[in-house]
Amino acid sequence: MLIPPGSDAPSAAAQIDRMREWPHDPRTRAPAAAAEGHPPLDPAFEAAYQAAQKSLNEGGIPIGAALARDGVVIATGHNERVQNGDPIAHGEMSALRAAGRQKSYRDTTLYTTLAPCAMCTGTIIQFKIPRVVVGEARTFDGEFDLLRSRGVEVVVLDDPRCVDMMRAFQEDNPELWAEDIAEDPAG
């Protein structure tokens, strides 16, 4: 469900703080299931999803990301190309910028709501981030082959919320989407 602008929904920061407090299974460090019969929610992925919603609510492109270490979210970010007029402010880049300098990224996982583009893939490879968890790759297939060829573990969740959010955005904003991925708009 998308949270409409001006709603009384909690802020993304408040939601992320609440997700950090969710119980974890001490054997796997995975978050406990949100409800009986449902798969466990991953607080880092949920933080990325909330960041994507924040971007959409700001009039931007709905792609969010989170960087985590040992199951703890270090930083989140979202696509800010529209909001800041910055052509390289993709969600993954924004999350890494928010994380600031790290001595090493080799023990982190990058969560993103959409398959990483070539630019973000290059950054993942450059900083040797070993694992990327992706919300969906139906609306954009990204650079999985390149990531995997460099030893990056890629996990695709195929999250229907991410698919629905991106499909709606791409249908409603074809020129803006084409600009974001450096493609000519369909004509």
Written overview of the protein:
Residues 1-38 have low confidence and may be disordered. It is built from 8 helices and 5 strands. A hairpin with a 2-residue loop joins strand 1 (64-69) and strand 2. The radius of gyration is 16 Å and the shape is globular. With 187 residues, the protein is an alpha/beta fold. Helix 1 (12-20) packs antiparallel against helix 2 (43-57). Strands 2-1-3-4-5 form a 5-stranded mixed beta sheet.
Key words describing this protein structure:
disordered N terminus, alpha/beta, single chain, 5-stranded mixed beta sheet, globular, 14% strand, 187 residues
Rounded to the nearest angstrom, the radius of gyration is 16 Å
- Strand pairing plus helix content: what structural class? alpha/beta
User: Quick one: biggest sheet?
Assistant: 5 strands, mixed
Instruction: Give me the count of strands.
Output: 5
The H-and-E topology, N to C, reads as HHEEHHEHEHEHH
Number of helices: 8
In the predicted model, the low-confidence regions spanning at least 5 consecutive residues are: 1-38
**Percent strand:** 5-15%
